[in-house]
Write a sequence for this structure.
C-alpha cells in the first residue's frame, strides 16, 4: 500500500511517523482543559472528541469518544474501529470537500500534553523473546540450561501491576527495595543499584473475551486493538532476591512506560511477518494460521544528563518467538477472561547480536562488560538523570509508521522513602 | 466488647454471624432489579443505597452508596467508614426511635442474589503462611530447603488476575491447560487432573496510596477497609509445568472466589492478635508496632455430589507469618501505588497439624495420602461436582462475627474448549 496523501502537508513527508496511513490513537489536553481523544496526523492532532461532538463523524453505538480515553471505542469492536479509520481517512485525504469542517479541530502536537490513551485494565508481561531468554538464562544457568524446559512450548508470562503503567514523559523515580547481594549475609533495604530497561512492544486488548472460554490464536488476533512501545523498568538487584519461587514482583512495579500513541492493527497490516521457525512443534491451540508478528524497527536511546544521546540498541519486533496473538490465546487457556484495556507486554526484544540486545542487563552482560556511550561515559545500569527513549518505525512504500517516543528520565531515589 | 443488641431479633443470637457488632458490606439485587449496597444484620440485609437515597443516613462527600458496589465509599476513607457504622448502629440498635424508617428497607438474606461487593482493581496473592510454605517446600525440595532464602525476610507475593475474581456461589469450570507430567516426553493440552483449593483471607484496600511513596506498616493498616474469605482455585498440574521461572500464571487464573460480605476492620478490632515470633529480625520497614493479625477460626467443607459435607480442614488466620498490613507495605516498597479495590490474598492458611492444612495438595501430600471423607469417598484433588465451602468465624463475648459462606461447585471441563 502506498502513501495516502493528506491535505495536512506535514503528514506526507516520507519520514513523518504519522501519515494518513497511521492514524494512531492518543489522549491530549484540549484547549478547554479536558482530556480528549485524538489521532496524530503529520505534526497535528485531530480532535476526535470534538469532531464526534460536532457530528462530523458518527459511530455505531456512539457517542464513543465523549470520554477522557479510548476504552469505550476499543470495546466497540473491529467494525467500529474500521469505520472510524474510514471516516477520518476521508476527512483528511487530499481533496476532501470537508476540510473546512476539520481544520478548527487540529492542534499542534509539539507542546500538547499527552495522557495514557486507555484505562489499563490489567497488565501482563511475557518473556517471549528467544534471544533475551537465552541471554538471561545463560548468565544465570549457563548456555546448556539457558532456556527453561517449558519455554519452547508456551509463551511464559506473569501478571504485572497495571497501576504502575505511565505514559511517555513521566519521570521515573529510582526505587528502594530489599536487596541481598551474593556476598551479603543479610538483606538490606536500599535504593536499587541495578535499575534497568526492557525494550518491548505492548498489545492492547480491545474486544473482551468470556470467562471460561479460551480463545483461538485467530480469535485473539481479532481482539487486539493496537500496539504501543513499552519500557518495563526493572530493578535487577531487587528482582534477583525476590523472584524465587513466585516470579518478579516489586522489581517490576515501579513503573512501565508506554508510548503516547496506540497504533491500530490496521495500520500495521502491511508489515505482517511470520514468527521464526519453531524449534519444537507447538500444541495445536498455539499454532498460527498466518503471519502474526510485525516488521517494526526498534531502537533504544540513552542520554546522560546534559549530554547527547547514544543509540544503545537496534532490533526488530520480528525477533519475538511468540506473537501477541499467541500470548493472548495462551492467557485464556485456563478460562481467564480478558477485558478491554488489558495490556500485554511482549517481553524484551533482543536480536541475535550484541548491539541488538533490549536490556542493559544483556548489553553489559550483568555489569561485567559496561557499555561505552558516544560521549565516553560508561554504563552497566541506569544512572540518575539518564533519559531513555524507545523508538519504533515500520517502513512502508514511501511512508513511515511511528509510535511517538516512549521516554522516561530517571530521578534519584528518595533520601528517606518514609519521610512525610 | 459485648453484643450490641438490635431490634432485629435474629441478630442477637450468640451464633448468628451477623450481629450489630459486625455490619459487613455486600451488594444484592434489590426489588427494583438494580444492584444496591447493603449490610447483613441477623437474617436480613439493610438496603443502604435506599437509606441514603431517602436521606435516613448521610455521609460526608455523599452520595457514596448510589452505586452498584462499595468502591466509592471505600475510597472515602476511615472517617466516613466510622461515620457509616455509627449511623447504622444507631438505627438498628434496640430502642432506636427510627426503627419505622428502616423497616421498609430490610430484605431477607436467604434467597437474595449477592454480587461482588467492590470492583476488584488488582489482585495480589501472597505466600505468607509459614506452615503452607514449609509443607509445599518440603514436598518439592525436602525439609532442609523447604523455605526459600528470602521467605523469612519479606512476604513473597505475585500479581494475580483480577478479572478472575468471582463472588461466592459462582460455579467453577475445571480448566484446561498445558500439562507435562514427570514421565511425559512432551506436554499436552488437557483438563487439569489436580485441581485444588487454597484457603485464604483477602484484605481489601480502601484508601489508595501515591505512586513513588512507599507506605509504612501502620499506614498500610489504616488503608485496609476490611477482610473477606478467599479461595484461590489452583490447577497444580498446570502450575508445575508453567511456574518456572516467572511464577504461577494460568494455574491461578480460572477463578478466585471471595465471600459475599466484606467484614470491616472495625468489626474485627476485638480479635487482633500478633503475628508469630520472628525467626529472624525483620528489616525496619516491615516491623509491626502492634497486633496486626486476627483470631479468626477457619474451616473448609467438601461436599461430593449428592453427599453430605466433610470438614476437611480447621485452622485460624493467626497462623499467618505476615499480616495483611505487612504485605501491603511491602507491596509499595518500590513505589507501586495501591488503589481502592485492590485485593490482597493472604496466602494459604495452614496450621501446624495435618488436619489444619489449607489445600488438598498439603492434605493429600501431593496425592500420596488421599483423604477419606466422612461418607467413605477418597479425595486427593477435586472431583467434578464437588462443592467447596470456606467459613470464617471470630468468637466475641456473646456474639460471633462471620463472613458468609465462600462457596463454589466444580463443573466438568468442557469437552472441547474451542467448540463454538
Amino acid at each position: 500500500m502506498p502513501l495516502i496523501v493528506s491535505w495536512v502537508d506535514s503528514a506526507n513527508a516520507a519520514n513523518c511517523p504519522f501519515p494518513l496511513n497511521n492514524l494512531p490513537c492518543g489522549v491530549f489536553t484540549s484547549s478547554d482543559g479536558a482530556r480528549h481523544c485524538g489521532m496524530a496526523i503529520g505534526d497535528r492532532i485531530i480532535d476526535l472528541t470534538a469532531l464526534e461532538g460536532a457530528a462530523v463523524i458518527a459511530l455505531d453505538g456512539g457517542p464513543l469518544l465523549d470520554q477522557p480515553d479510548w476504552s469505550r471505542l476499543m470495546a466497540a469492536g473491529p467494525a467500529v474501529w474500521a469505520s472510524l479509520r474510514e471516516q477520518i481517512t476521508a476527512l483528511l485525504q487530499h481533496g476532501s470537500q470537508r476540510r473546512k469542517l476539520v481544520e478548527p479541530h487540529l492542534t499542534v502536537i509539539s507542546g500538547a500534553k499527552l495522557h495514557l490513551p486507555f484505562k489499563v485494565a490489567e497488565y501482563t508481561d511475557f518473556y517471549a523473546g528467544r534471544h533475551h531468554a537465552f541471554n538471561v538464562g545463560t548468565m544465570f544457568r549457563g548456555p546448556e540450561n539457558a532456556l527453561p524446559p517449558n519455554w519452547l512450548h508456551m509463551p511464559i508470562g506473569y501478571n504485572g501491576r497495571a497501576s504502575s503503567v505511565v505514559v511517555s514523559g513521566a519521570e521515573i523515580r529510582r526505587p528502594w527495595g530489599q536487596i541481598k547481594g551474593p556476598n551479603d549475609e543479610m538483606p538490606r533495604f536500599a535504593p536499587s543499584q541495578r535499575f534497568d530497561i526492557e525494550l518491548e512492544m505492548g498489545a492492547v486488548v480491545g474486544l473482551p473475551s468470556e470467562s471460561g472460554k479460551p480463545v483461538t490464536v485467530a480469535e485473539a488476533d481479532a481482539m487486539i486493538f493496537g500496539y504501543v512501545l513499552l519500557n518495563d523498568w526493572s530493578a535487577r538487584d531487587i528482582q534477583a532476591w525476590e523472584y524465587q519461587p513466585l516470579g518478579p514482583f516489586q522489581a517490576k512495579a515501579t513503573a512501565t512506560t508506554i508510548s503516547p500513541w496506540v497504533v491500530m492493527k490496521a495500520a500495521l497490516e502491511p508489515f505482517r511477518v511470520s514468527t521464526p521457525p519453531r524449534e519444537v512443534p507447538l500444541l495445536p491451540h498455539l499454532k498460527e494460521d498466518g503471519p502474526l508478528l510485525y516488521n517494526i524497527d526498534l531502537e533504544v536511546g540513552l542520554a546522560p544528563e546534559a549530554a547527547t544521546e547514544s543509540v544503545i540498541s537496534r532490533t526488530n519486533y520480528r525477533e519475538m518467538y511468540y506473537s501477541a496473538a499467541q500470548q493472548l490465546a495462551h492467557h485464556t487457556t485456563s478460562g481467564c477472561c480478558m477485558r478491554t484495556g488489558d495490556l500485554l507486554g511482549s517481553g524484551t526484544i533482543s536480536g541475535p547480536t550484541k548491539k541488538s540486545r533490549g536490556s542493559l542487563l544483556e548489553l553489559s552482560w550483568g555489569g561485567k562488560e559496561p557499555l561505552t556511550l558516544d560521549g565516553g561515559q560508561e554504563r552497566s545500569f541506569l544512572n540518575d538523570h539518564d533519559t531513555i527513549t524507545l523508538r519504533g518505525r515500520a517502513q512502508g512504500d514511501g511512508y513511515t509508521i511511528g509510535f511517538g517516543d516512549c521516554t522516561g528520565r530517571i530521578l534519584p531515589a528518595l533520601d528517606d522513602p518514609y519521610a512525610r
